[in-house]
């Protein structure tokens, strides 16, 4: 890469291979803010593995303007062109340990666990409608969770095994976790879902930290109640702080990724908050948005060459 050794900002472009970003327009937008693009590096392409994509990633080094003012103009170009851009601080990269914390449902995994559970009582569509409203921020998350959990009353605890068997990580998750761990960093998850599914999944994937709700059980069956306080948006932010303290990582080296309104506090607290396939209000509030349906671009967003 032929960029300046000390850029003021980094912009990472993620695009389908058949939809090249217009670098001339990007350079003009940066110049309009008083800056210049001093280098462009090709960070590679995600694998053609049957999942979304493939996606190509380019990294731009920028001088003369910090990353925050870049987000609006470059984000507008990305939205018009059908690609994504992440503008970040130059020091937030995988050359040093980072903490990356993700939501679980529809972020780390492709499904909503509570909807999979509700399918066992024939009420998946009803629960999905409430979930959607909660993720859009239209109703209180804790209230919505209690409402959805009540429909699970009477299910045997064996249902967790049935659900775990069909849960699938989002494409690129193993590669993302491997890259963060290889850099000396840590990955954590915090979920408004359920530890009975989240904890085994985290152990299987090599995730260091996990926090989720626990469902109350009596006589081998779900009671339809949550045990203890609900993991809501405030608790997600607290979990991010706890994970960072345990990992010995400063908050300016943290990344949070999520899709719903209950992720907003966590996204706002992290040094870089990324909305992933997210609801409109979450995309608007986050530092950046990824819409390509893959998480193996995250290491590239953080400066790592794709393998």
TrEMBL record:
Its cofactor is Mg(2+). Transmembrane segments: none annotated. GO terms for cellular component: cytoplasm. Its EC number is 3.1.3.3. Pfam families: HAD (PF12710). InterPro entries: HAD-like_SerB, HAD-like_sf, HAD_sf, PSP. It is an enzyme of class 3 (hydrolase). GO terms for biological process: L-serine biosynthetic process. Keywords: Amino-acid biosynthesis, Hydrolase, Magnesium, Metal-binding, Serine biosynthesis. Pathway: Amino-acid biosynthesis; L-serine biosynthesis; L-serine from 3-phospho-D-glycerate: step 3/3. GO terms for molecular function: L-phosphoserine phosphatase activity; magnesium ion binding. It catalyses: O-phospho-D-serine + H2O = D-serine + phosphate; O-phospho-L-serine + H2O = L-serine + phosphate. The active site is at 103 (nucleophile), 105 (proton donor). Belongs to the HAD-like hydrolase superfamily. SerB family. This is phosphoserine phosphatase. It comes from Enemella dayhoffiae.
């Amino acid at each position: 890469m032929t960029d300046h050794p000390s850029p003021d900002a980094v912009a990472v472009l993620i695009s389908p291979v058949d939809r090249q970003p217009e670098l001339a327009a990007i350079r003009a937008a940066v110049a309009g803010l008083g800056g210049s693009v001093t280098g462009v590096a090709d960070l590679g392409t995600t694998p053609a593995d049957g999942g979304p994509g493939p996606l190509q990633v380019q990294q731009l080094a920028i001088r003369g303007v910090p990353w925050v003012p870049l987000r609006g103009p470059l984000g507008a170009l990305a939205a018009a062109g059908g690609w994504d851009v992440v503008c970040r601080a130059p020091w937030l990269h995988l050359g040093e340990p980072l903490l990356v914390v993700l939501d679980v449902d529809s972020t780390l995994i492709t499904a909503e666990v509570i909807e999979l559970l509700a399918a066992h009582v024939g009420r998946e569509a009803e629960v999905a409608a409430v979930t959607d409203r909660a993720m859009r921020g239209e109703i209180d998350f804790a209230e919505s969770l209690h409402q959805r959990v009540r429909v699970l009353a009477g299910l045997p605890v064996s249902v967790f095994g049935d659900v775990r068997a069909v849960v699938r990580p989002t494409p690129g998750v193993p590669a993302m976790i491997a890259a963060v761990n290889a850099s000396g960093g840590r990955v954590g998850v915090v979920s408004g879902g359920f530890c009975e599914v989240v904890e085994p999944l985290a152990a299987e994937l090599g995730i260091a930290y996990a926090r989720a709700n626990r469902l109350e059980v009596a006589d081998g069956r779900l009671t339809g109640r949550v045990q203890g306080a609900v993991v809501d948006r405030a608790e997600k932010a607290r979990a991010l702080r706890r994970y960072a303290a345990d990992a010995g990582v400063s908050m300016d080296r943290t990344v949070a990724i999520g899709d719903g309104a209950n992720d907003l506090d966590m996204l706002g607290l992290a040094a870089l908050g990324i909305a992933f396939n997210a609801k409109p209000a979450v995309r608007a509030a986050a530092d950046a948005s990824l819409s390509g349906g893959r998480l193996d671009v995250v290491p590239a967003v953080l400066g790592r060459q794709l393998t």
